[in-house]
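Researcher: Going back to the complex we discussed earlier. I've cleaned up the inputs and rechecked each line, so this should be the final set. Can you rerun the prediction on the complete assembly and write out the structure?
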Amino acid sequence: MPTYLGMPPFPEAAATALEDSQLRHNLAHATGVIRAKRAGAVAELSDWEQLRSAAKAIKDHTLAHLDHYLLQLEETVTRAGGHVHWAGDAAEANAIVASLVHATGADRVVKVKSIATDETGLNQALAADGITALETDLAELIIQLGHDRSSHILVPAIHRNRSEIREIFLREMPDAPRGLTDDPAELAAAAREHLRRAFLSAKVGVSGANFAIADTGSLVVVESEGNGRMCVTLPETLISVVGVEKILPSWRDLEVFLALLPRSSTAERMNPYTSIWSGVTPGDGPRDFHLVLLDNGRTATLADRIGRQALRCIRCSACLNVCPVYERAGGHAYGSPYPGPIGAILSPQLRGMSSPLDRSLPYASTLCGACYDVCPVAINIPEALVYLRSKAVDAKRGKKFSPERALFGVTAWGLRSPRRLKAAQRAASASRKLVGRSGTIRRLPPPLSGWTGTRDAPAPPPESFRAWWARTRGPGSRP
Amino acid sequence: MTSRDRILGRIRAATGTGPATPADVVAAYAALPRPYLSAHHDPAGHDIVALFAERAADYRAVVERVAPSDVPAAITRVLAQRADEAGHVRAEFSAHAAENSAQEPSGDPGVGFVVPEGLAGEWLGAWPESVAQVRDVPELSAARLDELAGVVTGCAVAIAETGTIVLDHGAGQGRRALTLVPDFHLVIVRADQVEPDLAGAFARLDPGRPQTLISGPSATSDIELTRVEGVHGPRTLHVLLAG
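Model: Rerun complete. Updated structure for the full complex:
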């Protein structure tokens, strides 16, 4: 995955973003709206937690047997008349797509929103090869026309409000109606007219997929506008670039994931359109179907026992919408197609921690835990963040002992077990003898003195919440 | 070494399990816990068909529940009304196009609705004379579909909990482009096709066929995360619920 050129570490980028009051206003408005709606859509299902635990178990099982399921998918897709390609990294994926497009004789492709191809920089690679990629998702179109970058997994143009979108359309879209207002319905209608001819004459479509079903060879694209249906139905050739972790074992698993994804992402009981296909169907849709399976850092992530849970992600974006850091800093500060809490644990794992940006991302969090609460596949993002902080310190210091690394390692270990957490809280309460007159700890003893060098440490409470609960509600009761 | 071998090798090294036998994996999958409900509304205590009507309407589909014997008359009424509206739109569009563009698709100026092969003949018994019935034989081009006023289809399954219609593009549903390119989709759902929830629906579907799940008309949440109806798919979804 390309690190955006010259992208500073998160704290610097976030400081710049925080000065943009328009950005903060747009984000606060959009995330506020969706947070309330998502809570309602989730509350409607009494078994949400059971769906969530089933989804986690299915994904963990799939990742544990990823080789088996990928080979099964290769077989089922091939049997259904499709072609399967394997790409180790971004450059290889882009080269495969470019050569497939060239083989059709086309010099233009229509694309449905795909973060995997944002990750590989496919549009730029195709452009360098003389192929124009036309983004057809409304938000991706706004980004493409505005020469901008995505700042949200689900709604890449979330940082733009309606009047900014109107300005971009009037400036960059030659066929935009002259009297265009900032009414969202009018803006959507303008996009419809603008893309209509391109869809009807498209020879090649490029997509990602939300799910790939191993036992049936089915690809699943979840969307709202119908641009996805256009891209996977009308062209003669369809190329889908799909991360290896998007696989599900069986057709039946859709009953779990299609209950979780729309409610978590757009707060709908079901999104307007979901397309499912397997290989090619004579007389219906593309005559040629190519599936490009993408690794690009995923197998390295899989090798990490704690970090691998990030591969369960189904890209719903609920964690972005509840994150206080994301809401204020915006998506661009994360310097990756994957912003927000999930991006903070996914980007440094997919790209590695060689850059200051990637080493800074695990710190882009207050560890408040809201992301974990809303995650439909129960990714423990706070645990992964703390753990990745210790790896970031390793990467910087070359594995030598540092108090910071040891502390984050111990913290991650403590957070994984309620029993250990209880013991740690008891120990923290005992440390109150260090508390000064101001009610804070001004100076911790070495090796923790580095922390209080630039800040006061808050005093631990005399009693933890767990201890208080046990004392007032009786031992054995659980909060 | 191919990329395929390299990726598979990296996965095996990462999971550290060595290749499990397919039977082991199948057994492990079968043992996965599924503590969730197979349906959120029990057909014993709920009118599932009414729930479907309510939930489909929530997302701005136009839903009418009619007696099975009234389906032909309802189709006629809906199409005649739509043809009337489409005629007006078309007249305005042609005037606009004549001013602005030299290359308009030829096409006939009348109002036509495409009807896929295999749609129940008795539903078409009262087809209005003012409206052309267009067949997809030989296959219509995408540009021709774009000129048509709409499409009339059946469906494979409907899902009450989510207000979803599922097309498997078999008999009476047409290939996928038919229900995508025209701006108006009239779909007839029989009461016995309504499943309470996702689990029952997926169990009924044939994974070998292409499927389209439709929940309301085309929409987007891309502007300020607020839902707006009407982008690339049919902007009007009209459901006749028979039974």
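Model: Worth noting: Chain A has a mean pLDDT of 91.
Researcher: Good, that matches what I expected from the previous run.
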